[in-house]
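[step 3/7] inverse_fold.run input=structure_tokens len=469
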């Protein structure tokens, strides 16, 4: 034994030196790909980029970037409809609801059929931009791949017997009958009453008096099923009595994930429900697509490392995370727009939107400043979909000016080339911003590699560079 051990070490050292370039599967294996750890500073989970080969339910690697942009647009439209207080596309055609409540005028598929041109291709979905983690459910606990969403509150997953529809998912579908701690929630419960605020869709009631939720995400994606209660667990940490949706009709294909974790600010969100045990805050680092993983932590965080901006309150939607953008500079020079332009639209920060949306005048000034700074560095390339400031080359290969996004209170995102430009194909890279007339959104390309904390208890959002790769 005493002789063998150093020998083994020496061998493995040799092996490491002999193969300095490990392929991506080795990188994934060397990570504890589904790290779940509860300690005195809270809950710590692995977070995967939706297209990372290390994700337990990766999107197809050949997914064209145009699909990402199309779905991003659908997400924006959905968030905008939330803020406009229009009900988002309600899945009124779900046959789970037939006989349980009055059907809306408009006939079968009425309000669900949107004019969106998004093709419902397996693997391509509203969750195209959303990061992925794991969650355990039931007793005994089984583990599910879930997308993480700061733009919605209700957590749900596909549920056996999938009485209307389930899409293909990684691993088995949750079976409530196999859990000793599962309970369906009655229509009279206060949590059932909370659904309208959480999903912006009315709840319904089954003939056996079980509360029915309808979660919809624009893009014709939705989940309808029974509001339920069970023990949720992450590694050694388990939390009984967690309210979530047991989805019996799931349409719109969330990659191969089992469902969605809602982290917005509503009583039904996972964040709020775990707050009594962990504290009312979460932080994450969104990794780039080529990195193995980032993290999601719920609970306390190291306050010293962050610069903060107050969470702005908005009467538009109490559950989304609003911030106040105060300025943008390119290579140290502030954009040539009056400061009031930055506040001309309500602004949210969102984990599932890929491309940041800015007020038109701010966007135009940013586009001009970046194009001017890069004029000698790279030839321009044609417009790509909503992205109109494109260059020949790649974000990593070009000299890209530093872009600083400043927020009220002094928090700053000092963007690296990979946060400024996004590669749309092998030879083209574009400014990863677009103009909007509706709601400005700080998207996830700009947040990648930063640690971002959402401290709801203290009503502040913080940024720190160097959170992950
Ligand atoms: C808790 O675990 C996380 C993740 O492993 C680690 O980064 C952190 O330092 C730990 N905190 C304490 C107080 O042990």
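[step 3/7] decode complete -> sequence:
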């Amino acid at each position: 034994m005493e002789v063998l051990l150093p020998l083994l070490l020496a061998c493995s050292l040799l092996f490491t030196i002999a193969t300095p370039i490990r392929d991506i599967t080795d990188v994934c294996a060397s990570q504890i790909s589904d790290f779940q750890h509860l300690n005195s500073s809270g809950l710590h989970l692995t977070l995967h980029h939706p297209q990372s080969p290390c994700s337990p339910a990766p999107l197809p690697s050949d997914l064209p970037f145009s699909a990402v942009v199309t779905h991003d647009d659908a997400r924006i439209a959905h968030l905008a409809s939330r803020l406009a207080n229009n009900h988002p596309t309600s899945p009124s055609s779900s046959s789970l609801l037939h006989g349980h409540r009055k059907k809306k005028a408009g006939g079968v598929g009425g309000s669900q059929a949107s004019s969106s041109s998004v093709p419902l291709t397996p693997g391509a979905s509203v969750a195209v931009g959303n990061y992925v983690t794991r969650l355990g459910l039931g007793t005994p606990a089984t583990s599910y791949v879930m997308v993480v969403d700061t733009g919605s509150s209700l957590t749900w997953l596909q549920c056996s017997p999938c009485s209307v529809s389930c899409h293909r998912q990684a691993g088995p579908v949750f079976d409530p009958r196999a859990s000793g701690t599962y309970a369906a929630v009655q229509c009279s419960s206060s949590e059932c009453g909370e659904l309208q605020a959480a999903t912006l869709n009315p709840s319904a009631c089954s003939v056996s008096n079980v509360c029915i939720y309808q979660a919809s995400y624009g893009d014709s994606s939705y989940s309808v099923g029974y509001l339920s209660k069970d023990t949720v667990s992450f590694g050694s940490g388990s939390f009984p009595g967690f309210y979530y949706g047991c989805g019996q009709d799931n349409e719109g294909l969330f990659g191969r994930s089992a469902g969605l974790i809602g982290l917005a600010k509503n009583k039904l969100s996972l964040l709020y429900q775990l707050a009594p045990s962990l504290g009312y805050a979460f932080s994450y680092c969104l990794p780039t697509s080529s990195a193995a993983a980032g993290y999601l932590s719920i609970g306390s965080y190291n306050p010293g490392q962050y610069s903060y901006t107050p969470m702005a309150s908005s009467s538009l939607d109490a559950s989304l995370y609003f911030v106040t953008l105060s300025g943008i500079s390119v290579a140290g020079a502030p954009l040539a727009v009056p400061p009031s332009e930055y506040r001309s639209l309500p602004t949210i920060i969102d984990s599932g939107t890929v491309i940041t949306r800015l007020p038109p005048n701010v966007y135009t000034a940013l586009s001009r400043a970046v194009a001017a700074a890069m004029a000698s560095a790279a030839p321009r390339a044609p417009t790509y979909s909503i992205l109109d400031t494109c260059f020949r080359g790649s974000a990593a290969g070009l000299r890209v000016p530093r872009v600083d996004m400043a927020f009220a209170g002094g928090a700053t995102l000092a963007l690296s080339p990979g946060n400024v430009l996004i590669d749309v194909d092998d030879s083209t890279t574009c400014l990863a911003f677009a103009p909007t007339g509706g709601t400005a959104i700080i998207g996830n390309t700009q947040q990648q590699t930063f640690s971002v904390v959402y401290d709801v208890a203290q009503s502040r959002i913080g940024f720190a560079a160097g959170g992950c790769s």
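[step 4/7] annotate
The pocket of 2-acetamido-2-deoxy-beta-D-glucopyranose is lined by residues 37, 39-41, 44 (CB under 6 Å).
The chain has eight helices and 29 strands.
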